Amino acid sequence: MTDKPSISPIKLTSHPGDHNPVRFPLRWGAASARERGPVVATLSTPTDRNAVGTHSGSYAVYRALAVAAGRLDPVHRPDLTDTSPTDLIGPHPQWGEPDRIVSIDPWGAGITEAFADDIRDGVDIRPTIAVTKARLQMPELERAVAAGRLKSCGVHLHGVGEASVTKAAVEPVWHLPGVAARFDIDESTLRRTLFEQTAGMFPELVTRGDLEVFLPPIGGMTVYIFGDPKTVADPQIPLTVRVHDECNGSDVFGSDICTCRPYLAHGIEECVRAAQEGGNGVIVYFRKEGRALGEVTKFLVYNARKRQAGGDRADQYFARTECVAGVQDARFQGLMPDVLHWLGIRRIDRLLSMSNMKYDSIVGSGIEVGERVSIPSDLVPADARVEIDAKLAAGYFNDGGVPDETELKKPKGRGLED
Ligand SMILES: [Zn+2]
Predict the structure, then answer these.
(1) Ligand 1 centre from 374 Cα, in Å?
(2) Ligand 1 centroid to 258 CA: how many Å?
(3) In whole angstroms, what is the distance from residue 366 CA to residue 345 CA?
(4) Within 13 Å and on the Cβ side, how many CA atoms surround 393?
(5) Span from the CA of 169 to the centroid of ligand 1 (angstroms)
(6) Digits of tens for pLDDT over the chain (418 positions)?
(7) Catalytic positions, written as ranges
(8) What is the 3-state secondary structure (H, E, C) of the chain?
C-alpha cells in the first residue's frame, strides 16, 4: 500500500508549442532497434515520452483506478528481471521494410536487451510484446485424440490431448503516418478523428504532430505458435494459419449462435496436425469483439435479428447489424497482417478462414496463400446456420455450395423463448 498521490498541478497537453524536441527520436521502419529508437510511453517522466497514449491498452484505465485508490505507486517501474522472451522471434527483414508493419512495434519484445543502457540509466522503457510457453487443454483436442484424428506424440501433443504452444501477447503501437497511409487518408484527418471520437481523450494527437506513435486504448492480440517458432518464417516449411477475431460468448462460453469456437478449435486441431507433420501452425487471436463493434452492440443485434418479422434469417443478417451500429463491420482487416509480418511470414500454405476481407488483406500485404480451408459443415451449430448462409451468400470463401435466395429467406435461428 502506498499513500494516495499528492495533489499536484495538472499538466494539460491541449496547447501546442510548449515542449522541447523529443529526447528519444523514432525512425520508424529502421533496420535495428537501436536505429529505430525506443518507444517511450512512460507517465512517470513526461519529458522522456515520444508517444501519445500509454501502455496496456484499455487496461490503462484500471491502472489509473489503482493509482486513484492509493493501491499503486504512480511512478512504479516494472522490475523486468527474468521476463525476457522464451523464444526469440526475428528480427525479420520485414521489420526494416518501410510501411510493412505500422500497428505494432516489431522490436517490442526485445527492449531489455536493445536498450539495456538506457534502462540502466533510469529511462522507463517497457515491452509491448511478451513471449512465453504454455500447454493448451481443450475438450475439442481430447475428442480429436479419442476419435483418432490426432495422436499424442509427446512433443506437440501430450497425454489425452494437451498441446504445447509458444504464445506472444502483443500490444497495439500505431505509427500514425503509416496507419493513415494504410487507409489511404491523410494523417491530420486520422489524428483529428481519433481525438474527436474518443471525446478528446488524447489532445496530443492534434497538438503534437512531432509525436508519430500512438498507443491506443484498445485490446491487442495473442499469437499461438504450434511447432518451432524459429522456422515459422521459412517458406520451405509448411505453415497453417488462422487469424481469429474475438467472440467471447462463443470462444469461451460455447454460445451456439455463431461458428467462432468451432472454427477456432478446428484451427487449433489443424495447427497441431501441421506441427506433428513437420510444419508449423499459427493462431492469432485479435481482441475485436463483435466485429470490433463491442458486445453490447452484438447482443442488441441478436435481439433485433430474432424479433424481426419473419424470424432470424440469413438475408437480413448483415442489414440488422448495420441498423444498430451504422456499419456492418469495424474490424478493418487492413492492419491485421502486421502481426504475420512480425513473425516473418512470406507464405501461408493453409489459411483457415472463409473471410474474403482477411484473405484480400493478407495477399494484398505481400504474403502468398496456398490453400483456403473453410469450416467443416458438421462443426456448424444449428443456430449458427443463419450466420454461415449469410456469409456464403455475401461471397465468403467456401468449398461447398452457396445457398439460393429462397434458402436465405427461411427463418433458421432459434427464437428468443426457445
Ligand atoms: Zn461468434
Answers:
(1) 15
(2) 5
(3) 10
(4) 19
(5) 21
(6) 455 555 677 777 766 556 788 999 999 999 999 999 999 999 999 999 999 999 999 999 999 999 999 999 999 999 999 999 999 999 999 999 989 999 999 999 999 999 999 999 999 999 999 999 999 999 999 999 999 999 999 999 999 999 999 999 999 999 999 999 999 999 999 999 999 999 999 999 999 999 999 999 999 999 999 999 999 999 999 999 999 999 999 999 999 989 999 999 999 999 999 999 999 999 999 999 999 999 999 999 999 999 999 889 888 888 999 999 999 888 889 999 999 999 999 999 999 999 999 999 999 999 999 999 998 888 888 888 888 888 888 888 887 778 888 888 887 778 888 7
(7) 329, 331
(8) CCCCCCCCCCCCCCCCCCCCCCCCCCCCCCCCHHHHCCCCCCCCCHHHCCEEECCCHHHHHHHHHHHHCCCCCCCCCCCCCCCCCCCCCCCCHHHHCCCCCCCCCCCCCCHHHHCHHHHHCCCCCCCCEEEEEEEEECHHHHHHHHCCCCCCCCCCEECCCEEEEEEEEECCCEEHHHHHHHCCCCHHHHHHHHHHHCCCCCCHHHHCCCCCEEECCCCCEEEEEECCHHHCCCCCCCEEEEEEECCHHHHCCCCCCCCHHHHHHHHHHHHHHHHHCCCEEEEEEECCHHHHCCHHHHHHHHHHHHHCCCCCEHHHHHHHHHHHHCCCCCCCHHHCCHHHHHCCCCEEEEECCCCHHHHHHHHHCCCEEEEECCCCHHHCCHHHHHHHHHHHHCCCCCCCCCCCHHHHHCECCCCCCC
22, three cell numbers: 523529443
**Rounded distance, CA 72 to CA 162, Å?**
37
Ligand 1 centroid to Cα of residue 4, in Å, is 42
**Ligand 1 centroid to residue 43 C-alpha, Å:** 37
Tell me which residue has cell 517501474: 77
User: How remote is the CA of residue 49 from the centroid of ligand 1, in Å?
Assistant: 39
**Distance, CA 416 to ligand 1 centroid (Å)?**
17
